[in-house]
Amino acid sequence: MNTSRGFLHITYKLYHHLDIIDGVKKSYCLNVFLSVMKYAWKKNGYKAGLRHETIHKDTGLCRTTIKECLETLNKLNIIKSIRGRSGKTYIVNEVFLKAEKTYEPTQIAVKPTPDSRFTTTLEETIYINNIGKIVKSLAGDSQRIISELSKLPIEDLRNEKVNVYLCKQAIQLKEDNERESKATYVNADKILSALSKIKKETNHRYKEKKEYNIRNGIKPWESK
User: Fold this and answer.
1) The pTM is what?
2) How do residues 9-37 score in pLDDT, each as one tens digit?
3) Could you give phi then psi for residue 162, rounded to 5 degrees?
């Protein structure tokens, strides 16, 4: 039986997950992702040991762009990279893939084309949680995305499997905001008054005058 790769289903979840990337970098990242998938097979756990030279030959992109794209894909939890002795091993996050099937080429030629009247329409339902909706609606504006995500329950952010990098940033912002809200601040007038008193107490002429008044029992406030 021929077990060659059949159809590789990459979900729209991946495409929209990259919406936060500006300009042509999104297309570069998709190009690099497809190059990695060329070597990352299901039977290998979607792992592939690759050099940048291999990806360069597949995509035509320069090594600097390839490196930047791989770093971006790693931050977005799409491809995880593990450094080895002779290069890096890349592991694709299966959240962005559909089940991969195999086929026998000889069966394709003899199988009759089904009548479209009786063909079941394929309907794909993609679950997008609140985090996904925020990321998609504010695509390209990382600061606003992180700000909006920080308003969600912290457990939702910690349990997110797709937008991991953004959720980590949102958790940090959420914790910073909570510390800020609990902080106790001293009234500005009190601070200025305390500083003025310190300045006055450290003045040499004032100290001499104060000691003179104490020695002679003079109370300036009573003479006012």
Assistant:
1) 0.46
2) 677 788 888 888 877 888 899 899 988 88
3) -100, -60
